[in-house]
């Protein structure tokens, strides 16, 4: 079946512009995650959704970052007034997380959006 | 502080040899997971080992977990060129996604 889909795959934007990144998770996966990966680095957790709600937003780097999920499916990550330090690959993942404490569901990742802020 | 620190950061071996990567973590965990990432792609889940397990196998992969040393190792036997990728461990220390912490990864190169 279809995996996690992210769009666009690449985005080049000017400093100060807003960008919107989209994630379409695997059908039926209730949990959705956003991570950021800088060159040669590990993954930085940003936010996750259980259904449409985001229990913990503390991973978002600043108030310029926001995310929403509607209908328990597609999610968008919005970065306002982009800065050069926002340049990174933004990865989305989903999992079949049946309950909040179900921590044994592996994550399924999309191929990411490579964001370059000039 | 960063959980899930992989070691070495980079590893280059000949095709057919075995590759061993290590991971250390700092707090108690519920499980530890290993993922692979090919260049320009997302991460792919390889194997999950629970805190009450000591060893797990999947095909050419063997994972061990030593909770007393807070460490795990991933062994890839009879390596192939297609195994060239970055490998990440992710330790899960609590409920929810905020309890899953990824390391910086080991970049493995298999030379034909």
Summarize the structure.
The complex is a heterodimer of chains A (118) and B (112). By secondary structure, chain A is mainly beta.
CATH architecture tag of chain A: Sandwich
Order of helices and strands of chain A: EEEEEEEEEEE
CA gyration radius of chain B, whole angstroms: 13 Å
Largest interface, by Cβ-Cβ below 8 angstroms: which chains and how many residues each?
A-B, 28 and 28 residues
The average pLDDT score of chain A comes to 90
Summed over residues and divided by their number, the pLDDT of chain B gives a mean of 90
- Which overall shape of chain B is indicated by the principal axes computed on the Cα atoms? globular
First-to-last CA distance of chain B: 38 Å
User: How many helices of chain B in DSSP terms?
Assistant: 0
Give the C-level CATH assignment of chain A: Mainly Beta
Q: Any overview of this molecule?
A:
- The complex is a heterodimer of chains A (118) and B (112).
- Chain A is an all-beta fold.
- The mean pLDDT of chain A is 90.
- Chain A has strands at residues 5-7, 10-13, 19-24, 31-37, 43-50, 53-56, 65-69, 75-79, 88-95, 108-109, 113-117.
- In chain A, the strands form 2 sheets. In chain A, strands 2, 4, 5, 6, 9, 10 and 11 form a 7-stranded mixed beta sheet that branches. In chain A, strands 1-3-8-7 form a 4-stranded antiparallel beta sheet, with no helix packed on it.
- In chain A, 0% of the residues lie in helices and 48% in strands.
- Chain A has a single domain, classed as Immunoglobulins (Immunoglobulin-like), CATH 2.60.40.10.
- Chain A starts with a strand and ends with a strand.
- Chain B has 112 residues and is mostly beta strands.
- Chain B has one domain (5-111): Immunoglobulins (Immunoglobulin-like), CATH 2.60.40.10.
- The mean pLDDT of chain B is 90.
- Chain B contains no helices and 11 strands.
- In chain B, strands 2, 4, 5, 9, 10 and 11 form a 6-stranded mixed beta sheet that branches. A 5-stranded antiparallel beta sheet of chain B has the order 1-3-8-7-6, with no helix packed on it.
- The radius of gyration of chain B is 13 Å and the shape is globular.
- Chain B has strands at residues 5-7, 10-14, 19-24, 31-37, 43-50, 55-58, 61-66, 71-76, 85-92, 100-102, 106-111.
């Amino acid at each position: 079946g279809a995996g996690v889909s992210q769009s666009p795959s690449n985005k080049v934007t000017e400093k100060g512009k807003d960008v919107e990144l989209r994630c379409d998770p695997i059908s039926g996966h209730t949990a959705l995650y956003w991570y950021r990966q800088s060159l040669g680095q590990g993954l930085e957790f940003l936010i996750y959704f259980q259904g449409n709600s985001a229990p913990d937003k503390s991973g978002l780097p600043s108030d310029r970052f926001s995310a929403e999920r509607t209908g328990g499916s597609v999610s968008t990550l919005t970065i306002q007034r982009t800065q050069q330090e926002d340049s990174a690959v933004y990865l989305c993942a989903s999992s079949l997380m049946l309950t909040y404490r179900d921590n044994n569901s592996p994550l399924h990742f999309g191929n990411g959006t490579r964001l370059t802020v000039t | 502080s960063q959980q899930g620190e992989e070691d070495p950061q980079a590893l280059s071996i000949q095709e057919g040899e075995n590759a061993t990567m290590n991971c250390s973590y700092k707090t108690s965990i519920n499980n530890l997971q290993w993922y692979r990432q090919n260049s320009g792609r997302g991460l792919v889940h390889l194997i999950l080992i629970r805190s009450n397990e000591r060893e797990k196998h999947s095909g050419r992969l063997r994972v061990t977990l030593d909770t007393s040393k807070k460490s795990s190792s991933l062994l890839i036997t009879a390596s192939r060129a297609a195994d060239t990728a970055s490998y990440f461990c992710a330790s899960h220390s609590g409920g929810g996604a905020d309890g899953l912490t990824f390391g910086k990864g080991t970049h493995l190169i298999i030379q034909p």
